[in-house]
Amino acid sequence: MTTLFLLLALTPVRAQEPQRVDVALVMAVDVSLSMSYEEMGIQRRGYAAAITSGEVMQAIRQGAHQRIAVTFFEWANNTYSREIMGWTVIESPEDAELIAAKLRTEHVRGERRTSISGGIYHAVEALENMPFIAERKVIDVSGDGPNNQGLPVTAARDEALAKGITINGLPLITTGGYGSQFNIPDLDEYYRRCVIGGPLSFMIPVNSWDQFPEAVRRKLVLEIGAVPDGILPEDRRVVPAQITFGKPYDCLVGEKLWRQRGFGLDR
User: Fold this and answer.
1) With contact defined as beta carbons under 8 Å apart, do 116 and 123 qualify?
2) Is the pLDDT of residue 231 over 50?
């Protein structure tokens, strides 16, 4: 018996392997001042409804591990990020409802400036420090204006893509909120050319707030399933990333617009 105890004491204890998930999804949501208080509430409720939908749960069950990991934070300038929910596994409707309950809590006003690059960098940091092993890593960025502060958005995007991360977009082509004069009419094209990228990346433009809940639901289903066939040719609102040899797009349009309005370009 003594020999057995000695052998057990000398046997190295293996560290528990991190849980495996089909996708690690960072939901990065714009709360810059161009978003009104009411619009920020619509965003929160839209994500809560999408996460608990039957379609999203079905997409999760179709994965090899039948579970995903998600985290949700709000961003504005390049120093502002507010975590609403840390890394959490979803593998049952009960898990999804717990997350939705957090998203339905009272929200606060955001901060000035729009730094999509800052949001991407924060999302990358979250993915690099997550306690899971993910088959895919995805950043889900939603916002209503172009980058106008911090490093250029293309620099942040390219660094994320180099690490095997996919970035998808939910450009909100809406009006309202303080600072909406810094928005651009072709935000969908800006997201396509300057923000999204990586394997099977895509965006879904939102032209009015009544479209938001459905757009989020469809976006999550595609991100979790990552099935190209889910993007139907006749579906005009889902736009895959693609290489284009047309006229170059100015990805510094937000920074230039800020200066044209009489403001300096602080970093």
Assistant:
1) no
2) no
DSSP string, the chain: -HHHHHHHHHSPPPPPPPEEEEEEEEEEEE-BTTS-HHHHHHHHHHHHHHHTSHHHHHHHHTSSSS-EEEEEEEE-STT-EEEEEEEEEE-SHHHHHHHHHHHTS-----BSS--HHHHHHHHHHHHHT-SEEEEEEEEEEEESS---SSS-HHHHHHHHHHTT-EEEEEEB----STTGGG--TTHHHHIIIII-BSTT-EE--BSSGGGHHHHHHHHHHHHHH--GGGS-TT-TT-EE-----SS---TTHHHHHHHHTT-----
CA 64 to chain centre: 22
Q: How would DSSP label each residue in 17-55?
A: PPEEEEEEEEEEEE-BTTS-HHHHHHHHHHHHHHHTSHH
Q: Model's pTM, two decimal places?
A: 0.85
Euclidean distance between CA atoms 263 and 261, whole angstroms? 6
Calculate what percentage of the chain has a pLDDT beyond 70: 81
Tokens of 55: 């379609």
Residue 96, amino acid? A
